[in-house]
Amino acid sequence: MARSSHSLLGYAPFVGWRYSFARKRNRFTSVVSTVSMLGMVLGVASLIAVLSVMNGFAGELRGRILSLVPHGFVETQDSGLHDWQPLAQQLAAEAGVTGVSPYLSRKVILGSPRMLQGAVLTAIEPEQQVLVSEVASAMSDEALDSLRGEGFNVVLGAALARLLGVTPGDQIEVTVPRLSVTPLGVFPRSKRLTVSGTFEVNAQPDAYQAYIPLRTGQLLFGAGDAVDGLQLRTVDLYSAPQIMTQIARGLPDHYKVKDWSQTQGSLFRAVKMEKLMVSLLLLSVVAVAAFNIVSTLVMSVSEKRRDIAVLRTMGARPGGIMAIFVAHGLSLAAFGVSIGALLGVLIALNIAPITVGIESALGVKLFDPAVYFISELPAELHWSDVWAVISASLLLSLAATLYPAWRAARIAPAEVLRYE
Questions:
Q1: How many C-beta atoms surround the C-beta of residue 108 within 10 A?
Q2: Taking the model in full, what pTM does it have?
Q3: Is 16 exposed, middle or buried (0-12, 13-18, 19+ CB in 10 A)?
Q4: Are strands 72-76 and 171-182 parallel, antiparallel or unpaired?
């Protein structure tokens, strides 16, 4: 009897598969099982595609915004950093540091004949700035050359220039948060600057960032020979927090050390949280489809009561019966998850052509570059996400099969066969 039970338990996957895809089944049960599989396909495919799009947006943010942002900052708690050159040399010699550059930065008001616009005006040394950010690659050679020396030139973000309605060669009025005392009274300090070029990274900094020469910034902001601090670039973006922490330990207490995760980290934490919430919402679709399997199995158990009784009289134990119906439910789920995963991967890998096709069919532009800074829907497929979705879907399906399988195992063969 024990050998018979073990052999039946070994056939549980085969019997469960036959129950799932046998041609002669109750029509209503077939419809319910088909709907369950379609729900699983839709949920898994949507989840993989959406996670890929979220990864794509996160990649765009990293590639565009962080291309202008240095990996770390060293500032002082006093009013400016004087005699900064020895400190810059010391930091450049630190392990993991590949570039150091001074900077001055203020929030200002830029004025043109068209309008007034708030902006962030940053004074830089071009030769050193190229070591800590990719801003140089976003500028023309003429614009970058204009930031050398002491000229009163300014390079604007492309979107900011469009808002102000200015082009290279025009002049704008800059008002800084510093008061000038004159015999006629106290007035905010202002100065005319010549627009010498623009830069464009297709991200939010295009709408608020502007650059001027370091010496011009020191004169305009009344900083003398001081700077706000030093910008640093490390060998790797994600190792910057550890490297900056190590640097902080070797500096006096009056220095403040920050890394990009402190200045820009809230944005990426928000993207990560949004990805998590969207994943949970779409996983609920998979959960609904998985628990539709409960209905399928409950009806299947009712249909197969006679088969269950026969198997029990042949020596099958309750565990074997339970294994058959668990295999039955997982067969349906695995088929739906497999098709959904394949479909989701195909959508994620071809999201750009799909977007173009939808735009052509509808005759609209889904992503206006002037508004969204992108021209197409980005997608970045991570296989770890695919396996996580598949694993979560199968676990939910397994949980959904346990109760109907347990009910099947509790069927008493004598009660079923009494009227046969």
A1: 25
A2: 0.64
A3: buried
A4: unpaired
| % residues pLDDT > 70 (the chain) | 83
Burial of residue 151 (number of CB atoms within 10 Å: 0-12, 13-18, 19+): middle
Identity of the residue numbered 206:
D
CB 108 within 8 A of CB 157: no
The angle subtended at Cα 402 by Cα 401 and Cα 406, nearest 5°, is: 120
Residue with tokens 């079923």: 416
Report yes or no: 111 and 168 within 8 Å, Cβ to Cβ.
Answer: no
Distances 387 to 383, 390, 408 between C-alpha atoms, Å: 6, 5, 31
Distance between CA 227 and CA 221 in Å, rounded?
10
> Rounded to an integer, what distance in angstroms lies between the CA atom of residue 33 and that of residue 107?
62
pLDDT digits over 5-26, tens only? 444 446 666 666 666 666 555 6
C-alpha dihedral, 179 to 184 to 190 to 191, nearest 10°: -140
> Dihedral of the CA atoms 222, 228, 230, 231 (nearest 10)?
-110
Paired tokens of 10 = 């070994």
Q: What DSSP line would sit under 326-352, residue for residue?
A: HHHHHHHHHHHHHHHHHHHHHHHHTHH
* pLDDT less than 50: residues of the chain: 1-9
Centre a 10 Å sphere on the Cβ of residue 92 and count the other Cβ atoms it contains. Answer: 15
Segments in 119-167 forming alpha helices (H): 126-129, 141-145, 158-164
Of 188, 150, 151, residue with least CA distance to 171: 151
